[in-house]
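debug: dumping io for the single-chain case to check the tokenizer round-trip. Nothing else runs in this session.
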Amino acid sequence: MTSVRERVLPQSQRRPLAELVGQLDLTVGDRASKVSAFWTMLVLSGLIAVAGVLADSTATVIGAMIIAPLSVPIMGIAAGIVLGEAPLVRRSLSFVGAGTLAVVGIGVLAAFLLPSTMQLLTNTQITGRTSPGILDLVAALATGLAGAVGLSRRDVSDVLPGVAIAISLVPPLGVVGVCLGSGAWTMALGALVLFLSNVVALVLAGTVVFSAYGYRAEHASAGAAPWRRAYTAVAVGVVLVLVPLAANSVGAYLVALWGERIQTAAQEWVEPAGGRVTDVTLVSSTVVVAVEVPGALPDVDALLADLEDQVPHGITVLVDAGTGERVEAGVVGARGPSDG
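debug: decoded output
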């Protein structure tokens, strides 16, 4: 393990502790300039992120990721934990908390100024950030490790722009604000979970790398008790974000499974009429089955009967014939009007 650690974190490239803290503590050195730069870039990145989200523009959102400074105080939390410096943890948390509220506020304001016709469910920048899963946490952990190594090693600091792009901090907060301003509370909660999971992943990765690089051993004032309490708090945070992420992952798997079953049943239902299924969309408790049929649609009650044992009861089935005709087949498990 020692040889592996030396290869990943060579002492010859180790950044001095004072230099590392100077990078991550916004109150060290020229405080006024650091704080001014932090807020200027954060507000600008928030505006860019919200604009990119609303315009459904991936390139614009990436631009917001690159200039967003929120990862600095987050890594400052990790450094404070490793060094046993509670004041550094508190200061960094205050910057993260205030920055979070600022970006969310920008999103809420933008949502109020937008036309009420905006469709959140068709915006990929929004839907892609409202249902995070376990893989998002894994990616955030790997990204956090890369970022911590880049901060600790002099020779790989040029990886930090890539880390800024890979980790998603400001865009989810913009989505939280837009969804809150639009009254979509569940979607806002999903985006907030993504942000919090990324924060926890960054802190965890930072504490692991900074500890492995010997910064705690170098800092004589790091007591054992505060160190244990801090790591316990990080572990609890990981568990707390794992619960909704795991639930979302299971939900995504079930939705995919039900979608396949619905597609198979719908294809068997429409095939005798010479038709085919072109798309199956499952949103909340409603599924839209898009079909192409040369003549009249087959009996929709037959489709509902086929789905009885395939998907949970209570799902509303809509059949889109592709010619402007959308037929509500009914609710799976419920008695239709033709049942007497």
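debug: round-trip ok. The radius of gyration is 25 Å.
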